[in-house]
Amino acid sequence: HMFGSLAALDSLLQEVAAIEIPKVSKVSNRRSVASIGSGSILSKSAGDECLYDQSDSHEVKVAKLKAKIQELKAENGVFADKYAPSLRRRVNINKLVKHHHNYLRQVVGVGAWIRTTRKGRGLIFVKLYDGTTAHELQVVVPDTLQNFEVISRAGVGTAVFAVGEIIPSLGKEQSVEMQAIEIRIVGECDPVEYPLAGKRLPLEHLRTIQHLRPRSAVMGAVNRVRNTLAFATHNFFQNAGYVYVHTPLITASDCEGAGEMFQVTTLIKDDDFAHKLPNGKPDFSKDFFKRPAMLTVSGQLNGEIYAHAFSSIYTFGPTFRAENSMTKRHLAEFWMIEPEIAFADLKENADIAEAYLKFCLQSALDHNPEDLRVLEEFEIRIRAARAKGAKKDEKSPTNWHDVPLRIRLHNIINNTFARVTYTEAINILLKVVEGGHKFEEAVHWGMDMGSEHERYLCEKHFMKPTIVTDYPKDIKAFYMRLNDDGKTVAAMDVLVPGVGELIGGSQREERLDVLERRIQEGGMELEDYSWYLDLRKYGSVPHSGFGAGFGRLVCYTTGMEHIRDVIPFPRYPGHADY
């Protein structure tokens, strides 16, 4: 068999080349070439002639053995420079498509899964995917193949190892295709039971099978774009000289002062606290950390420590919030990008946030054009389905998503972000309310704008990303620098169409007395933030930073509307599977 014999022959060839003094006297039925390979197919039965004379030198003997191996390879119908690859000698589809000119008329092996099969006259067209690209490899399987009938019955999801010659494709969907020499089924998949066997499965269904949904075309595209954005994040900050800092996941500080944090404790025994105070509350002095500890909501405070030592740093890791929210924008576990920049004011902070966002979008356009095409087509189908389901007398409102995905991304990159103060934004919203527009939550100065207000500003009014600055101090965190008016802080939110708030940041309060007062106003203890206050005692400088929700960035780039569809394993109230 081609796979077995060629693998054995190649192994033999390597072993023969490695030996200096082959311990071979003659070839007989006693497998006297066993030292060259225990499974050697060069063993002869009694009466066969020797491969070499006993008077031959060792070098001649080795040379003759090599020649015999090459002869046997030729007898198998495949020459040394063009033979069936083993599983270890495979080419991924992404490399095959990108560099197809290098593989034309070459025999290669591809490990992948079946997406579709289509029968023709005396052959089958099999579409394979391996997750490395949105492209699929078409394999033409002739009926002369030994296991043709088996392959023709193989369903979607079946894992195969296909070997064949890469040739120019006559089809419009691909530049090259594979003319199959052999296809081995590696892992079977019953199409009747397989949850992904159907076509155009809704995202709601895919959320119920998170262990299988990465295999779908849409989720594959989303996750490849997510990968690109993660890599772009590191590229952006590393190229600018930032230091990457790993901040702790377990903390005793509430960065946001909101109290919506997950408790970390070892005190719970038999559904109750093992150690309690006289008042019935848990005695955290007996806990692992000897004090209350939580999962972090942000790495910012820790990041400020390192910004005062390295000037510019960034963090990129998971954060947690115990907010009982089931909206499309919220998760209990999510990833954040948080740079901190010493000597930077709010304007520079906003400039960096805008540049970072544009860099990420350009990276996706450069590295994931096929994935964005898949996502754009998916978005068009969703929009068409919604329009079909709408009532005849119901007009579909103009939506940001009506603009094709890739055009939206280009528009963001090629335009300067709008900038407006919070007070100016509230006045804009009040005017549209006077004109008859209705919001679910009434508009007034001092409110914490909701998604409907944020999206109106960037989607309807400015029609591009919008940076809102100088928010009321009472709705922002204690560490944000108090403005001269005493009412607002030097805060900023970057609002993007289709998502709302994507980035939140501020100039940090560098004045010790003001920061102490803000901590106390928030009902927190100065002692808990003594180390944070020390940063203002010893060489304090103006500094700024922001936090970008990575999940929301992926939503924005891929056009996905629900944040649960852009993270591998979403965590939200009642759901911590896998």
Verbal overview:
The protein is of the alpha+beta class and 578 residues long. Helices cover 33% and strands 20% of the residues. The chain has 15 helices and 18 strands. The protein has helices spanning 2-18, 58-75, 93-98, 148-153, 203-206, 217-239, 300-310, 346-367, 369-389, 405-413, 422-434, 451-461, 512-521, 530-537, 550-558, and strands at 107-120, 123-129, 137-142, 159-168, 176-187, 243-244, 250-251, 263-264, 268-269, 272-273, 293-295, 312-320, 333-342, 418-421, 466-472, 488-496, 500-507, 543-549. The strands form 4 sheets. It has an 8-stranded mixed β-sheet. Strands 1-2-3-5-4 form a 5-stranded mixed beta barrel. Strand 4 and strand 5 (176-187) form a beta hairpin. It is globular, with a radius of gyration of 32 Å.
The CA-CA distance between the termini, in Å, is 42 Å
Number of E strands? 18
Helix/strand/pairing category: alpha+beta
The portion of residues assigned to helices is 25-40%
Features:
15 helices, five-stranded mixed β-barrel, 20% strand, single chain, eight-stranded mixed beta sheet, 18 strands
Topology:
Layout: H1 2-18, H2 58-75, H3 93-98, E1 107-120, E2 123-129, E3 137-142, H4 148-153, E4 159-168, E5 176-187, H5 203-206, H6 217-239, E6 243-244, E7 250-251, E8 263-264, E9 268-269, E10 272-273, E11 293-295, H7 300-310, E12 312-320, E13 333-342, H8 346-367, H9 369-389, H10 405-413, E14 418-421, H11 422-434, H12 451-461, E15 466-472, E16 488-496, E17 500-507, H13 512-521, H14 530-537, E18 543-549, H15 550-558
Parallel strand pairs: 3-5, 6-12, 14-15
Antiparallel strand pairs: 1-2, 1-4, 2-3, 4-5, 7-11, 8-11, 9-10, 12-13, 13-18, 15-16, 16-17, 17-18
